[in-house]
Amino acid sequence: MEEPTVPDMTADGAGPSVTAGASDGRQISRGLILQTALDIVDRDGVDGLSMRRLSDAVNRDTTVLYRHLPNKAAVLDGVAELVLSQLTVDTTDADWAAQLRTVAHAFRRLALAHPNVVPLLVTRPLATPLGQRPPGTLRPLEDVLTLLVAAGFPGEDALHIYRVLFAYLHGHVVNELQEIVERPEETDHVLRLGLHRLSITEFPHLRALAAALASYDGAAELDRGLDLVLAGLAETLTQPARTPPTT
């Protein structure tokens, strides 16, 4: 029975990419390469991904990979794109604040599903110029801008809001995932014990908040921060346009 192939859509959805030939007759595509790379990162982290490991995983020579992705940086961008493609924004939602909250929780769920990819979601936009990023990584930005402009924000204000929102989201998920990825052995009991060993004269507030720190709820904490962020944005929306100063 012939083995099924994985269709690869270009970033703009125009259609499948050119298929590279292989000795075993199977097809390989950009989508298959990136899904395999994502599987490696999910399992072994970003440091566990190399072009050699990736070529071994898809059973192809490294040169075949380079026909679809020119270098490892492009693979990393593509992995981020693959995950971000799952983040959808309802640009027609009349309640822009509720929609941004929905997007924020969806982003958190993606982060929890792919904790090892979070460093790419946070750092790849800084490492790759805007005009060179895969279009799929820009889709959330375009959709949030569409939502906010329709809600009455000027374009530049909408861009500022996007930056504030995702700066908060990035910081939140990095903080939450640190406990899962970096210090999974630090249980609530260990955390409470460690805090109570601190000097009460030097760290009175940390000791007093030991119970709150030990009972950290990522979803509730996200909502609390969103309450503050979205309230500030709503206030901004209701403000009259500034009058240019007279000379």
Task: Describe the protein in words.
By secondary structure, the chain is mostly helical. Helices cover 62% and strands 0% of the residues. The chain has 2 domains: 1-70, Homeodomain-like (Arc Repressor Mutant, subunit A, Orthogonal Bundle), CATH 1.10.10; 83-184 and 217-238, Orthogonal Bundle (Tetracycline Repressor, domain 2). The chain contains 12 helices and no strands. The longest helix is centred in the C-terminal third of the chain and has 28 residues, at 155-182. The N and C termini lie far apart (80 Å). 23% of the residues are buried. Residues 27-87 form the HTH tetR-type domain.
SSE layout and pairing:
Layout: H1 30-44, H2 51-57, H3 62-66, H4 72-84, H5 96-113, H6 118-127, H7 135-151, H8 155-182, H9 188-196, H10 204-208, H11 210-214, H12 218-238
Helix pairs in contact: 1-4, 4-6, 4-7, 5-8, 5-12, 7-8, 8-12
Provide the structure class. mainly alpha
Which superfamily, in CATH terms, is the homologous superfamily of the largest domain? Tetracycline Repressor, domain 2
Global morphology: flat
The largest sheet, given as strand count, sense and whether it forms a barrel, is: none
CATH architecture assignment of the largest domain: Orthogonal Bundle
The count of β-strands is 0
Report the order of strands and helices.
Answer: HHHHHHHHHHHH
- How many individual domains? 2
- The percent of residues in helical segments reads 55-70%
Q: Please give the alpha-carbon distance between the first and last residues.
A: 80 Å
Average the pLDDT over all residues and give the rounded result: 81
CATH T-level fold name of the largest domain: Tetracycline Repressor, domain 2
Please, how many helices? 12
